[in-house]
Amino acid sequence: LFPRPLLAESSFSPSSCSERGGAAAPRLGGGESQGFLHTRDLKMDDKSNMLRVLIATDCHLGYLEKDEIRRFDSFQAFEEICSIAEQNKVDFILLGGDLFHENKPSRSTLVKTIETLRRYCLNDRPVQFQVVSDQTVNFQNVFGHVNYEDPHFNVGLPVFTIHGNHDDPAGVDNLSAIDILSASNLVNYFGKMVLGGSGVGQITLHPILIRKGTTSVALYGLGNIRDERLNRMFQTPHAVQWIRPGHQEACPVSNWFNILVLHQNRIKTNPKNAINEHFLPRFLDFVVWGHEHECLVDPQEVPGMGFHITQPGSSVATSLIDGEAKPKHVLMLEIKGSQYRPTKIPLKSVRPFEYAEVVLKDEADIDPNDQASVLEHLDKVVRNLIDKSSKRAVSRSQLKLPLVRIKVDYSGFSTINPQRFGQKYVGKVANPQDILIFSKAAKKRQSVEEKIDASEKLRPEELNQQNIEALVAESNLKMEILPVNDLDIALHDFVSKDDKMAFYSCLQNNLEETRNKLVAEADTLKIEENLIVKVGECMQERVKERSLRSKESMRTTTGSQNIQGTRNENATGPTFSDEEDTRQMLSISKSAQRRGGASRRGRGRGSSSLKQMTLDGTMRTRHSERSTSGSASVATRSIVDEGIDSPSSEERERDELHDLVENSEPEEIKKDKGRKRAAPRGRGRGSTSSAKRGRKSDFTSIQSMLMNKDGDDDDDDEDDISTRLKKVQPQV
Fold this sequence. Notes:
Elements: E1 51-56, H1 73-88, E2 92-95, H2 107-121, E3 130-131, H3 135-138, E4 159-161, H4 177-183, E5 188-189, E6 203-205, E7 208-212, E8 215-222, H5 227-235, E9 240-242, E10 257-263, E11 286-290, E12 296-301, E13 308-311, E14 329-336, E15 339-346, E16 353-359, H6 371-392, E17 403-409, H7 418-422, E18 436-439, H8 454-457, H9 468-475, H10 484-496, H11 502-572, H12 578-602, H13 607-623, H14 625-642, H15 647-671, H16 687-693, H17 696-711, H18 715-731
Helix pairs in contact: 1-2, 10-11, 11-14, 12-13, 12-15, 13-15, 14-15, 14-17, 14-18, 15-17, 16-17, 17-18
């Protein structure tokens, strides 16, 4: 597996070797190569335990496909990357996003990409590693497995890739151009997160667990998410969850080599619009950072975090700035156990790019009032750059027209037309229309460290853009139906990605989220209603059972009381039954109430009829006292026995007590008419107010009623009734 000779020791990155957990690996070798794993320190014959990965990012296939000179640059660089992987016989290729430049690549771009992948990836070469994780979670497609395990395809060079900000998923089905390659079984698409609805959201990163011999690698992937949103997610507790490999006897958790590949902003010009390295977890060992086009392929250690970051940069220059003028490289990573060795490999098919900066006021041979001297000086600079590029390309098999960019600081001078200036270099440079870019010197800042190039501050794709949030803030609008963030994303997709269904998708997603919330709330309310109905049914059953028991107890008590009343009847003479007494007393009370009301209104009229009615009521009351007191004692006993547990029987017995009190009250009023005036019902110490105060006063009211009634008779009657009350009271 090591047919290609390794680069010289000077090509290795400082502090490139690290062990799990951030501790430095043993430093071997001497001189400038100290700090690297030496070639002979890794056993070359132990190929079964070494995993070799070729890492590249930002291929931007299809960039300037309508330009006659530069239309094939991206495809030639990508084909060279695949060729390097084939020559070094790596186990797989790892891409860090932005495989395509357009969100909807043309048919020509798709055809060229598929042809390249078929040419280098489909062969009979055996794959010497295995994926031991749940592949249905790692690869979100209908097949749910890594492409080389498909029996219908002979995949000899697997490709693992995430999406970037140029080829991210969009539309109703949330699909990207990489999904086409994944469905064709040409690449393994992972790191695709579904963020539905508004708010910060939540994501879970499941690693692809790769094992080769004794080497175990956990590969985490995070496709591009809007930097502002991902920044908030990292600062929100539990919004980003990392799944660690499970503990196994053959490979404990500490033996896994953890790699993360992501595609986000890294430049810290705006902290809210970039991802800080300190947001990442400390258990990582190696991070592949995409989206940044400047080639910083040598792994750099993050202070205090314990992992290294590599930034391979783009394979084709899309922004003509100083950062892209650096030579383009890819990285070959060799992993064995918990150690790794990076090897950067230059790309030779990349179009040469020369960059220079000119400050006109610092040049002595330029007259501010003479524009010809300015043109002559700029022509001289361009020619020098072209000669410099041609000297570098002497050893190359194919000489390409170079890209030339001159940044001119024209403070104190007048500008010239860049298109007219570039006409003389048609056929000599690849970009004659934009060789010159004019700018003015920025104001002096307090410190040199804060001085940042304006061209690096503003990316070409971010110029002249304003988001929905800023518009809403300026207009003081209140978004009540659709979230501002979702509208911002929909507008970006509609303009930048030519997604005609962007706003429709935004509306459908919010409607679906609202429906789900309503269904969840309805289910909760339905469960609560069912519980309330069941509790009500149980309460009704308990009330019925208690009422039945109270009736049975009343029948038993009434039967015993009737027996006692029969014995007393033989001694004192015949009496009426309880029902007859109650019926007669009700009729007497009603007539007495009518006449009593008339007497109260008339204050003295009809006194003879009242006296006669009082005598009749007294005679009848004496005959039914025994039965009345017996029924009252029975009712009072049932109230005491039931108590609080039987509200229905309590109300029924209370109504009976009120009937008894009302039957006796008119007689009491009639007898006391000549001596004193009766108190109004409900305000004095009558039976109605005492019944409202509680159950304990029910029997007291009956007893006071009977005693007041007996007090109006002669002394003999008082002795007789008091004796009877003494007999009844112990029963209560």
